[in-house]
Amino acid sequence: MTTILTQTVARLLVAPTFAVAAAILVKGYADVGDGFAAGVVAALGVLLLFASIGAKETHRILPVRRAFTVAMAGLLLALVVGFAPLLVGDPPFTHYPAPEAPVVRVGTLELITAVAFDVGVFGLVLGVVVGALDYAARARKGDW
Amino acid sequence: MRGLSLVISGGGFAAILALWLNGGGSVDVAWAPALELRLAFELDGLAALYALLATGIGFLVVAYSTRYLPLHLEHEGRTARDEPRFYAFLLLFLVSMVGLVTAQDAILLFVFWDLTAVASYFLIGYDSHRRDARANALMALLVTGISAVLLLVAALLLYDEYGTFSLPILFEAAEPGALVTTAGALVAVAGLAKSAQVPFHFWLPRAMVAPTPVSAYLHSAAMVAAGVFLLGRFYPLLQTSGLLLDLLLWTGIASMAVGGILALTRDVMKQVLAYSTIAQYGYVTFMLGLGGPEGAVAASFYVLAHALMKSALFLTAGAAAEAAGDDRLSRVGGLARTHPLLAVGSGLAAAGLAALPLTAGFFKDELLFAAALERGELWAVIAVGSAALTLAYVARFWASIFLGPRRGEARAIPAALVWPVVLLGGLVLAGGIVVEPLARLAAAAGEATFGAPTPADPAYHLDARAVNLMALATYALGISLYLTRARWIPLAVAAAGLGERGGPERLYRGVLRGLNLLSDRIHDVEVRDLRTRVASVLVPAGILVVLGIWVTPTGGYDPGSIGSDDIGLVLVLVVATLAALVTAFARRHLTLVLILSALGFSLAVAYAFSGAPDVALVAVLVETIVALLFLGIFALLPRDVLRREARLRTSRRRRWRDPLIGLFSGGIAFLVVWSALSRPAPEATVAGDHVRLAPDAHGSDVVTVILADFRGLDTLGEITVLAVALLGIATLLRRGRTA
Question: What does the pLDDT read at residue B705?
């Protein structure tokens, strides 16, 4: 099923997929998309690689073994962003800057803590999907 | 850990003593102001008494453990690596105990109360490789933990009425009445269960599976004491009701009788002491039930004196078992000749428990007799009877270990197993000569309990006053009981057997077994296979929906008309419907997955038609990933298994049941959607608020703002599920590979 064509396309698509994911993540607050969608798009890129060139080859190109770490780091980031406001006496999930306060913008990216939370979601989703896939692939192929 | 425990318990004792001598102290800071919870602590007389016991005896127990625990671990075949766990939980218990007795907020009190239960579970079950240790630790946790919920219920009842969790304000405001009586009864049950009073007493003898220092600590100065502490703390509420005082009175009498009689029948040293503890705390409950200032101060003094003596006797049991190589009274004896110091130390403690003159114990009974006499002659007779029982079993305990011919070995034991006993015995003796410091502490605790000054001036009076005559009667009765024990011990054994056959422990086991069976049954029905599991969610949910629609009819069912703009949507939904129908007939797994994803994709298109691009995007992505994961998993399964499963015919019963369940739940879902669509759109909805507020959150994509900001906590909960799923996959697949 996997021909030279699909293999080449899959390899070529990795970088654009991640770029699209980054775009969806960054402009999530202004337009369609959010961390979850971005995470799934990025994971799809990795999935395509797995399907076309196999797990072993994918491991050579991408740090797939880090998937578990990425997922847990994402969860940790989301937790920290969510509950850090408790430290200054605000309810959990208070985002900064406050309503109507000025926001620093870098292109369409708004520097607000809600975006950091979204980045956490992105990391978790990417890590979980890729990690699940990788564990399944390795379960079949044996330890390597 | 060992050094830290010594420092914290010893330093804590010194600090609490210094603080109390300087008039106490209090801390009060906000904890969760929105819930009106405060971190309020105060070192009043009652708190000082129990905190000094918890830290002081804690210190001696830790010192004893430094030598005892290595021996214990060696007997159990364990390594020194298990030592820190012991000290950690002992320390947790000690700190929670100090927190518990100083807490001035009902919820705070409950939190520490539960912490002591948790620590006690790990301490009692310390030898966790033994099945009985685990089961008995669980029993202690269940009995004291379930009853602890009653304490929380009482706190909430009182909060509902008086609007505060602050104990001093509550006690000030509480009016005698049904509510306060109910709350008081709940608190009393929690306290009595922790104090191992009849009918909750059965957990305590079982808890003797713990290492001896744990028993010495939990059952003299800490866990069981926490129960009567709670009664003392809530005494202002309890004493508003004569009914509650009578409850305490009779529970105390029952516990004195059951504990005293059974203590005479036991052969294992720690079992004798366990039943003795039930009886001794029965005295305290009895005295609190007598009411009045005399009862309050006598109870406080009793707790203080008893903790010193009982911890000494428990530590003696551990040391004697170590010396003789056996823990049964019938297998030891004559240790006085080889271990004179231990014999003297524990002899003083035993004399104290038996209330002989020149020990602090004499005064505990003097105050008991005075309080009982105050209430009436009947109670005085009961008090004398129980005190005589105490003397009889204490005499039997001490004499069997130290007197008579030597049975068993007489090994040398480390000094650290002896000097804590000698120190405690010395304190008992010193308290019998100069009683003033102990009496002062007890009077302060009594005052905090009773809410008014409770004078206590225990002293020796060399005349024929009533309490002295009662003491003499106790000695005479107790000694004759001891001497004639061969005659009536069979009777006591028979009574004990009767209690085992029909007692509350049997009820506990029956209930536990019943609950386990019920749980297994439900588990079998629910998770026999994937279909029953799905059905067990869908069918009850459907029934609830039917009930909901039946009880609150929504009126007409009118979903509106279909215009020419809707043709695209209708076409997509037709595709979705067809796909859904085909899934019911597909046989091959691959076909099934492809049809399912066709269904998902057409729904995604439907979202796009409804102007929800965010949802549509996520739906497309999720469908893709799910389909691919399915295919990946099929690749893992052997081909022939898949082929065999696809050819499998459903059983006759299944053939009717599953479609019926599907039709039922599908119909219910249809009903819900229809009724939701036929409702007129409300003017102001939460969704409207979200759209309006999104710019304030610096966002123009409302869905993202809802996910990350307005409903951020929900999102966090949901993504945590993902993380847990990954952990599950990792564990399963890794295990599967290595096994």
Answer: 83
Give Cβ neighbours of residue A42 (< 8 Å, ≥ 6 apart): A17, A18, A21, A122, A126
Residues in chain B within 8 Å Cβ distance of A121:
707-708, 715, 719
Average pLDDT over residues B477-499: 84
CB count within 10 Å of CB B440 equals 12
Are B736 and A82 in contact (CB < 8 Å)? no
Does this model's pTM top 0.80? My answer is no
**What integer pLDDT is reported at residue B14 of this predicted model?**
93
pLDDT of B495 reads: 82
Strand partners, B103: B41
What is the domain partition of chain B in residue ranges?
Answer: 1-240, 241-483, 684-739
What is the enclosing helix (H) or strand (E) of B110? helix B106-124
Cα separation, B121 vs B100, whole angstroms? 17
> For residue A1, what pLDDT band results from cuts at 50, 70 and 90?
low
CA distance linking residue B266 with residue B275, whole number of Å: 9
DSSP assignments along A60-91, one per residue: HHS-GGGHHHHHHHHHHHHHHHHHGGGGGTPP
**Is residue B367 within 8 Å of residue B298, measured between CB atoms?**
yes
Token digits for A113? Answer: 């803590």
C-alpha distance from residue B50 to each of B46, B47, B53, B225, B300 (Å): 7, 5, 5, 8, 9
* HEC letters along B645-708: HHHCCCCHHHHHHHHHHHHHHHHHHHHHHHHHHHCCCCCCCHHHHHHHHHHHHCCCCHHHHHHH
CA distances from B450 to B42, B46, B234, B291 (A): 17, 10, 10, 9
Residue of A nearest to B730 (CA): A135
Domain limits, chain A: 4-141
Here the tokens at position B203 are 């957990």
Q: Which two tokens stand for residue B510?
A: 């029956």
Question: Which three-class secondary structure state does DSSP give residue B205?
Answer: helix
Query: Which of B700, B719, B720, B737 best probes binding to A when mutated, by most A CB atoms within 10 angstroms?
Result: B719
The pLDDT score that the predictor gives to residue B287 is 92
Q: What is the ipTM of this complex?
A: 0.90
Per the CB < 8 Å rule, is B621 touching A40? yes
